[in-house]
Amino acid sequence: MADVTFTSPAMSKDVTVYAVAGDTRTLLSVAKEHKVPIHFECENGECGSCACEVSVLSGKTPLGVNLTEKEKTVLKLAGKVTDQQIADAEVKNLPPPWRLACQFIVRHEDVLVKF
Question: Where do the domains of the chain lie, and which CATH numbers do they carry?
Answer without folding.
Answer: 2-114 (3.10.20.30)
